[in-house]
Design brief:
heterodimer; A: about 325 residues; 2 domains; 5-stranded antiparallel sheet; B: about 350 residues; alpha/beta; Peroxisomal Thiolase, Chain A, domain 1; two-stranded antiparallel sheet; 11 helices; 12 strands; about 20% strand
């Protein structure tokens, strides 16, 4: 068996997601920035930390914010042997824990920097270790640390972050990046491998004449597997198009204006999305006949076809492609 | 169930699992399940009134993967279709409701997930609160371990009890051709292995699994005509707990208890239960919340500890119970599905054969 076609893929939004935090979480994060922990009194008198904007039982609006802590008690924990770089803010082993701050009736999920799993136990007393530079983020409380008998929590040092506002926190930016290794699948692999041989190969299901290209492994009308391979033409008809006047973000983007088109390849029954070059944008039209222009070094990659250019043939009559327009 | 409720039965079921499938893409993973469920029901695609799937785009990191997933089910002429970004057990619930409206008489439900493409445990952690929890990057396993920690602290159970569940599940999975992790080991042997996520061991954690499942449900009129012994849905309900992990008692599952009451679990004897426990301790919490005694056979398939094709795992629980009723080896059973960190959302379905 040939090796599967794989593609490494990172899912992220450059700079991170910008989130509005609302009044309750905003109050909590403002508190962390200023070096204290804020809870809210619920409808039944329970103190909830982190505060919620609405009561979890009655849904009543909650606004009775109260200070809690600074010390707390561990109610559950698990040890993390290998912190993940770029994700966990501590770079050495630590515990995730549920910590109930003094004066609170609920526990909050955070980290305990205890050095060793042997130092962790349920019921242990902990105190906040504050980050010196705080910005209104959950890691302003850098970690909970063990608090020995008779020891008192160390207050937060003055904030060394000179750029930070003293106004209530209204938003945060959360970076999220996820890594994947995607596999193309059977049908797409056959199609992609054919591209490296400068061939375009679609598929059809038994009992159907409809050829799908690129193939996805099924006939999308019936769900039947498409097990029959069909090589289609490299010449086709523009069924519809769009003139793009907005510059692309990639440095490989064509100069504007450029034309994106749906191209019905001869022998195929689904239109294909491609670029049209070699024809001024204002001369591109439905029915114009075009041919694939291959990259110099085609591979199992959709970019092996650079674009389509006019063949010079007469335009296809509308009736020939109207079912696909 | 009260009057005015249409009787609906499971009439077809198929599943497909692999430890790490690098050959097929998601669509190709769904095709055999859909075709298999249709064949099992003796129905053609065009006879199906409603089509619905459950999946999670984050598993493969692409937007709207469920739309291409529909290619595997066939959608022309245009079909009545829906999707839930939940385990497909919730899709089955929506399909059941659609049949109750009288609008349709049958439904195809499928769930799929290739959880081996990314870091499943990290991805699922993003279900947590995005302001104060997710930025700390606790994984799905870290959060489950916190629940296990809270559970053991609140009860008399020990790590040895967790290993007993893992051992029983792995042994039961030996007979399940769809299980991806099987082992004939004793609880003592598992207990001797290292703790990986205090207090959990690797054997307490469901394996990463790629897979899919499909179920066909239909009204009594269709079911009795197509199926020798349909598995009737006698009750189905789902509930959700508060989002904040600290806001709920992690040693219990209030939402499961309510869903079990709503589905009528205690209205008759339970022969078999398939429980969506991705971690050993979850089975103990859920068994208690479902009100099941020790006479009930739990997860004879090996359960999620044997195979965990995320977004199909819950639907498979319903399929496994239905299969046992249809084969006559059980008459009344309970299927449970869960979603979200630390069992946040729970669905309970009671299935029964005609006497």
């Amino acid at each position: 068996m040939t090796a599967p076609l794989m593609q490494h893929h990172i899912l992220e939004y450059p700079g991170g997601y910008t989130r509005s935090v609302g009044p309750a979480v905003g109050r909590y994060l403002s508190g962390l920035r200023d070096g204290h922990i804020v809870g809210v009194t619920g409808s039944d008198g329970r103190v909830l930390v982190p505060p919620t904007g609405y009561d979890p039982v009655t849904a009543a609006t909650l606004e009775d914010y109260v200070p809690v802590g600074p010390a707390g008690t561990v109610t559950a924990f698990t040890w993390v042997n290998q912190p993940r770089p770029g994700k966990h803010h501590l770079t050495h082993p630590f515990a995730f824990a549920l910590v109930r701050p003094d004066g609170s009736d609920t526990a909050m999920l955070h980290v305990v920097d205890a050095g060793s799993p042997d130092a962790m136990s349920i019921g242990m007393r902990v105190a906040p270790r504050w980050a010196p530079a705080r910005r209104g983020y959950v890691t302003d409380l850098e970690a909970w640390v063990p608090l020995a008998d008779g020891e008192t929590p160390v207050p937060a040092p003055p904030n060394t972050n000179e750029d930070v506002s003293t106004e209530p926190v209204t938003g945060i930016v959360t970076p999220i990046s996820l890594a994947y290794d995607i596999n193309a699948g059977v049908a797409a692999s056959k199609y992609l491998r054919a591209l490296s041989e400068k061939r375009i190969v679609g598929q059809r299901a038994k009992g159907s004449d409809d050829v799908y290209v690129p193939p996805r492994g099924t006939d999308p009308t019936t769900g039947a597997p498409t097990e029959i391979e069909v090589e289609v033409g490299q010449v086709g008809t523009v069924t519809t198009y769009c003139v793009v006047n907005i510059p692309g973000l990639s440095e490989n983007s064509p100069e504007i204006p450029y034309v994106c088109a749906q191209i019905l390849l001869d022998g195929a029954h689904t239109a294909w999305f491609g670029l049209v070059q070699g024809l001024p944008a204002d001369e591109v039209r439905m029915g114009v006949r075009v041919r694939a222009v291959w990259a110099d070094d085609p591979g199992p990659d959709a970019r092996s076809i650079k674009w389509f250019e006019p063949t010079g043939e007469p335009d296809a009559p509308y009736d020939d492609y109207k079912a696909y327009a | 169930m009260g009057s005015g409720i249409r009787e609906v039965a499971v009439v077809g079921f198929a599943q497909l699992t692999a430890l790490e499938d690098r050959e097929h893409n998601e669509v190709e993973l769904i095709i055999p399940a859909v075709q298999g469920a249709l064949a099992d029901a003796g129905m053609e695609r065009h006879e199906i009134g409603f089509t619905i799937s459950g999946s999670c785009d984050y598993l493969s990191g692409g937007p709207f993967t469920f739309v291409s997933g529909l290619d595997a089910a066939g959608a022309w002429p245009p079909v009545k279709e829906s999707h839930v970004e939940m385990d497909a057990a919730w899709a089955l619930y929506e399909a059941w409701v659609a049949i109750q409206t009288g609008d349709v008489d049958s439904a195809l439900i499928y769930g799929f997930g290739k959880s081996s493409l990314g870091d499943l445990h990290e991805i699922m952690g993003l279900q947590a609160d995005p302001y104060v929890v997710a930025p700390l990057w606790p994984s799905m396993v870290d959060m489950a371990a916190l629940q296990a920690s809270a559970f053991l602290a609140a009860t008399d159970y020990t790590e040895s009890d967790l290993c007993a569940i893992a051992a029983r599940s792995r042994r039961a999975a030996v007979d399940n051709p769809y299980a991806v992790r099987v082992e004939d080991a004793t609880a003592q042997e598992l207990l001797a292995r290292p703790v990986t996520h205090t207090p959990l061991r690797d054997s307490d954690i469901a394996p990463i699994t790629d897979g899919s499942a499909a179920i066909i449900i239909a009204t009594r009129e269709i079911a009795d005509a197509r199926c020798e012994r349909p598995a009737y849905i006698r009750g189905i309900d789902h509930r959700v707990d508060a989002q904040g992990l600290g806001l709920r008692d992690l040693a219990t599952s209030a939402s499961t208890k309510l869903a079990a009451q709503g589905a009528g679990v205690s209205n008759g004897p339970v022969d078999v239960a398939e429980i969506h426990a991705q971690f050993s301790h979850e089975e103990l919490i859920l068994k208690e919340a479902l009100g099941l005694d020790d006479a009930v056979v739990v997860n004879p398939s090996g359960g999620p500890l044997g195979a965990n094709p995320v977004m199909a795992t819950g639907l498979i629980r319903i399929g496994e119970v239905a299969a046992r009723i249809r084969s006559g080896s059980a008459n009344r059973g309970v299927a449970h599905a869960s979603q979200g960190p630390c069992l946040q959302q729970n669905l309970v379905c009671v299935l029964e054969g005609d006497q």
